[in-house]
Inverse folding.
C-alpha cells in the first residue's frame, strides 16, 4: 500500500513550489480561534489551479472542524481540489463525523498536512484512511513546528499529560510587584490589562494562589468588554467566549473565604488543597473541592496540572499568582511561557520583588530564559520568554 510522502521545503518540485503559501495560510487561519480547548486549533485551505476555493478553521469545541467549514464554503468547487490542513484530518466520530471521510466524499484530489495528530484515536489513521481511498497524502515537514506552535496545549496534553502553562506577571521597572504594604493596583496600564484578558480567554483555566486571593480579592474572569476585539472577532468566537475559563485556587489548607469574589461570579471554580473534600466545613456553592494527589504539605503542582488536563480537558492554562506560587511553578520547570508586563515606574527597594526565589549563589545556577517576543503596549513593555 502507498504511504504518506514527507517533503521539506527545499525538496519541492517547481509545480508545487507554492504549497508553503497555502499551508502558511491554513496555519494562520487556525490561529483565528481564541479557544478550542480541548480540541486543537486547525486551519484548512482548498486550492484548485492556484485559486483558493474554500477555507475554514475550527472555531470552538462542538463547532465544525476546519475541513468541514472549508468544504461547505467551497461547495462543488471542492471536487478535485488540493486540501491543505494544518493537522492530520480526524478519522473517528466525536462530536462531528470524521473529516477524512468528508474529504473523500467531497472528491479532493490530494491532501497536504503539516502535523500528524498525537491523539491516539487518530495518530496516522486519518492519513491511512485517505490513502486507502486513493487520495495521496503529503506532509510538509518544515511546517510541523509552526502547526504545533499555533495549538501548543493540544500537543502538550496529548504527549505529556499536562497543559501548556503560561505564567503572567506585571512589574515595575525595578522588578517590583507591590509596595511593602501590599498595595499593587495598578502596576501595568489599561492596555496591558486588556491584553491579559486575551490570555485568559485563550485558557481553559486561570490558576492563582491563596496568597493572591487573600491579598487582592481578584475576579480572574474574562470580561468581553475589556477584550478589545473587533465585533466580527467576538461574533466568530461567540461559543468559546460564552464560557468562562475554570478559576482554580491552590489553597492547601482551605483558607479561601466564602465571600471571595472569585467564588461568586459566573463560571466554575476548583479549589485544590491537600485535604479530602469532606474536610470542607462550609462548602461554597458552585465550587468543586479537590484533593491534589502527591502528598506533601502543599498542593502538588504536577498532579494538579494532570487533573486539569485529564479531568477537565484543559490544554492551555494561565498562572496569575503572586511571587510565591509563580516561583514554585518556574522552579518546578512547569512554565512553558513567561509573560512579563514592565511598567515604566520605580517602586523602590522596600517594595516586593517579582519572584520568591532564594538560594541562587552562583551565576551558573541562574534560571535562564530566551525572549520570544518583545513589544510595547501603550506605555508598558511586554516580554514573552521561554525557559532554556
Ligand atoms: N504583579 C502581578 O502580576 C501579580 C499577580 C498576582 C498577584 N500579585 C500579588 O502577589 C501578592 C500575593 O503573593 P503571594 O506570594 O503571597 O501569594 P500567591 O503566590 O498568590 O499564593 C501563594 C500561596 O499558594 C499556596 N500554594 C499551594 N500550593 C502551592 C505550591 N505547590 N507552591 C507554592 N505555593 C502553593 C500557598 O499557600 P498554602 O500553603 O496555604 O496553600 C502559598 O502561600 C499579592 O499582593 C498580589 O497583589 C501580583
Amino acid at each position: 500500500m502507498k504511504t504518506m510522502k514527507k517533503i521539506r521545503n527545499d525538496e519541492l518540485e517547481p509545480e508545487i513550489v507554492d504549497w508553503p503559501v497555502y499551508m502558511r495560510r491554513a496555519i494562520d487561519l487556525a490561529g483565528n480561534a481564541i479557544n478550542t480547548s480541548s480540541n486543537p486549533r486547525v486551519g484548512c485551505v482548498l486550492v484548485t489551479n492556484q485559486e483558493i476555493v474554500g477555507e475554514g478553521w475550527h472555531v470552538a469545541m462542538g463547532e465544525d472542524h476546519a475541513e468541514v467549514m472549508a468544504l461547505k464554503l467551497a461547495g462543488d468547487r471542492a471536487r478535485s481540489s488540493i486540501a491543505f490542513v494544518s493537522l492530520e484530518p480526524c478519522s473517528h466520530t466525536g462530536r462531528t463525523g470524521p473529516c477524512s471521510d468528508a474529504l473523500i466524499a467531497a472528491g479532493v484530489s490530494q491532501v497536504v498536512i503539516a502535523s500528524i495528530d498525537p491523539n491516539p484515536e487518530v495518530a496516522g489513521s486519518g492519513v491511512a484512511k485517505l490513502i486507502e481511498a486513493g487520495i495521496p497524502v503529503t506532509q510538509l515537514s518544515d511546517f510541523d513546528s509552526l502547526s504545533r506552535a499555533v495549538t501548543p496545549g493540544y500537543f502538550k496534553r496529548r504527549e505529556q499529560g499536562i497543559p501548556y502553562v503560561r505564567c503572567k506577571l506585571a512589574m515595575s521597572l525595578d522588578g517590583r510587584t507591590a509596595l511593602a504594604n501590599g498595595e499593587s493596583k495598578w502596576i501595568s496600564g489599561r492596555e496591558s490589562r486588556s491584553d491579559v484578558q486575551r490570555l485568559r480567554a485563550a485558557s481553559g483555566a486561570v490558576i492563582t494562589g491563596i496568597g493572591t486571593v487573600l491579598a487582592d480579592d481578584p475576579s480572574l474572569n474574562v470580561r468581553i468588554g475589556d477584550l478589545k476585539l473587533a465585533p466580527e472577532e467576538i461574533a466568530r468566537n461567540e461559543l468559546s467566549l460564552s464560557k468562562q475559563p475554570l478559576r482554580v485556587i491552590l489553597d492547601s489548607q482551605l483558607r479561601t473565604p466564602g465571600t471571595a469574589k472569585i467564588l461568586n461570579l459566573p463560571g466554575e471554580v476548583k479549589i485544590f488543597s491537600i485535604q479530602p473534600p469532606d474536610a470542607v466545613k462550609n462548602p461554597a456553592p458552585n465550587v468543586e473541592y479537590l484533593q491534589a494527589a502527591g502528598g506533601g504539605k502543599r498542593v502538588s503542582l504536577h498532579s494538579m496540572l494532570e487533573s486539569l488536563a485529564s479531568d477537565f480537558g484543559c490544554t492551555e492554562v494561565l498562572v496569575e499568582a503572586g511571587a510565591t506560587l509563580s516561583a514554585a511553578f518556574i522552579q518546578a520547570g512547569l512554565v512553558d511561557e513567561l509573560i512579563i508586563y514592565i511598567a515604566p515606574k520605580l517602586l523602590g527597594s522596600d517594595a516586593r520583588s517579582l519572584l520568591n526565589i532564594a538560594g541562587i549563589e552562583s551565576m551558573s545556577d541562574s534560571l535562564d530564559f530566551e525572549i520570544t517576543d518583545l513589544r510595547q503596549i501603550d506605555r508598558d513593555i511586554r516580554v514573552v520568554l521561554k525557559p532554556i
User: Anything to note?
Assistant: Residues 161-387 form a domain with the Dihydrofolate Reductase, subunit A fold (CATH 3.40.430.10). Residues 19-30 form the longest helix (12 residues). The pocket of NAP is lined by residues 169-170, 177-178, 182, 184, 187, 208-212, 215-216, 250-253, 255, 298-299, 301, 320-325, 328 (CB under 6 Å).
